[in-house]
Amino acid sequence: IMPPSGWTLEKPGASASEFVANNMNSASTNFTSVDPTSTSSALVQHDASNVIDTWLKSPAYSITSADAYLEFYTLYRGTSISGGILSVYISTDGVDWSSEVWTNGPNNTDDNTLRWYKNTVDLAAYDGQDIYLGFRYYGQGGYFAGFDGVKIAAYTGVNDPITINVGDSVSPKE
Questions:
Q1: Quick one: which of 18, 36, 80, 169 could link to 11 by a disulfide (CB 3.0–4.6 Å)?
Q2: Model confidence band, residue 172 (pLDDT cutoffs 50, 70, 90)
Q3: How far apart are CA 40 and CA 148, in angstroms?
Q4: pLDDT digits (tens, 9 = 90+) for 107-154
Q5: Which residues 6+ apart lie within 8 Å of 21 measured at CB?
Q6: CA torsion 12→173→60→9, rounded to 10°?
Q7: CB 159: neighbour CB atoms within 10 A?
Q8: Parallel, antiparallel, or unpaired for β 61-62 and 130-139?
Q9: What is the spatial distance between Cα 164 and Cα 168, in angstroms, rounded to a whole number?
């Protein structure tokens, strides 16, 4: 299911490409090698004719620890994603998406293997706040790319970390 329950999918550009659910049929994009319980990933196909600008945005989540962090995986082929950029943004109001907290940048690796890369973002600056997550693919050409294994947790002091798999159904903060 794309987008997952409580999340929104936005596509402000002209391209027909957007995040779609990957049903794990392809061995090269199958996230179950990282997480056997995963049922789908958010993938976007490249579009050689149009610029792709697609977002997957979360509902609000409360950050209740200065030790909180965001963990997620990105799928891309290092040198082949040169036409597109994967980025993660955090908003504290769900409207202003100017705070980019992670990007792969074009050609950030010489590894041309299509694989899942693990990433983390420190959320200490958002302690005591509600945040929204924005996952974005922007560019033209390149190869397909995606996100999965999204989790908000804490290094210490959190007994029950929030775990959000992109394909899972989640409820927004009340």
A1: 18
A2: very low
A3: 8
A4: 455 566 777 888 999 999 999 999 999 999 887 766 677 888 888 988
A5: 1, 2, 40, 41, 42, 43, 167
A6: -20
A7: 5
A8: antiparallel
A9: 7
